[in-house]
Amino acid sequence: MKDIVVIGAGKIGGAVALMLAETGSYKVFVTDRDQGQLAKVDRHAAISTVAVDIGDHKALVDVLRGKFAVLSAAPFNLTGKIAQAALEASVHYLDLTEDVATTKKVEELANGAEVAFIPQCGLAPGFISIVANDLSKCFDTLDSVRMRVGALPQYPSNALNYNLTWSTDGLINEYIEPCEAVVEGKLVTVPAMEEREEFSLDGVTYEAFNTSGGLGTLAKSLEGRVRTMNYRTIRYPGHQAIIKALLNDFNLKNRRDVLKDLFENALPATMQDVVVIFVTVCGWKDGRYLQETYANKVYAGVVAGKKMSAIQITTAAGIATVLDLLADGKLPKKGFVRQEEIALQDFLINRFGRVYDPEAIRLKQAV
């Protein structure tokens, strides 16, 4: 059994811990500064809880030292401190951040490190990057890569057509921070909440628009090889217009605390959600202009004997799969590791990654 530290005892951290513990391959130490959160962690023989404040660098390093890896499910603004502690403790580092600045800091820390630093191991960035890179290999010459992901309520019932399904801070960060894209072969920055589009999948109409962080490191990996590449978040129609009014007309983009309070007190959370994944790649193969598409929906279900939301399942399975691949020697053991270095087939046949595979036995759908 390998010793793993999971930092953050929220919904995602708890799901990661339970998934890992259920395998019998990992002993998991869940840390959080909030004793109330730690008390909510599922009881399991392979799970222990430890109260640690990320701001206490020495205490954090002491907890990490001697472990195989640390998995950060903490808010994006704290992950840099965890990565620094991982370097000092010489343990492998994995996180779920979508924050561009944080990922750049992790890459700097990984330079010359004797352990692996693998950021963005969730859904988007994360699995979406693995899919897009895999589809890109089908072509002699690339033209466009379009990546679309959304975590949506199955039963929307308000004007935003939305329920909270994950970190409010992360959601707001995606809606406000600048976005990376490749436009006419150049890596550029574009504003969030813009370039709205509509599409249909399985008879359902969706909208999609720019949000920050979803491209991950793939933008740099494919820069110079692709004419157009972008990432957009999927929502039901009508969502973008209201959010733009809140951010711009009410100036809540500069009052994140107010916006967070609004979201958390007006938008109910739900466990009845669906994750929509839609990736389209176009290019030339044997002289023909062709398109390859990956489309999938993952629903809430029962994993490790516990009902989990779709965003819990996909995010937790993402980082758990990457950890498994690292432990099995299928990923580099040191330095900076990009999501696009992971083979899609290796991911989908993994015991955790199978939840993404539309051809695999489906999860028992939650009622």
Low-confidence stretches: 361-367
Distance between the termini: 34 Å
- Helix/strand class: alpha/beta
Number of helices: 12
User: What is the element string, with H for helices and E for strands?
Assistant: EHEHEHEHEHEHEHEEEEHEHHEEEEHEH
Q: pLDDT average, as an integer?
A: 93
Shape: globular
Q: Beta-strand percentage?
A: 25-35%
| Strand elements, count | 17
What integer value in Å does the Rg equal?
Answer: 20 Å
Major beta-sheet overview: 8 strands, mixed
Question: Helical residue percent?
Answer: 25-40%
Description:
By secondary structure, the chain is an alpha/beta fold. The longest helix is centred in the C-terminal third of the chain and has 18 residues. The C terminus is likely disordered.
Which key features would you list for this structure?
disordered C terminus; 12 helices; seven-stranded parallel beta sheet; 367 residues; alpha/beta; eight-stranded mixed beta sheet; globular
Give a topology summary.
Elements: E1 2-7, H1 11-23, E2 26-32, H2 35-39, E3 47-51, H3 57-64, E4 69-72, H4 79-89, E5 92-95, H5 100-110, E6 116-118, H6 127-136, E7 141-153, H7 168-176, E8 179-183, E9 186-190, E10 197-201, E11 204-210, H8 218-222, E12 228-235, H9 239-249, H10 256-266, E13 273-285, E14 288-299, E15 301-303, E16 306-308, H11 310-327, E17 335-336, H12 344-349
Parallel strand pairs: 1-2, 1-4, 2-3, 4-5, 5-6, 6-17, 7-12
Antiparallel strand pairs: 7-13, 8-9, 8-12, 10-11, 11-12, 13-14, 15-16
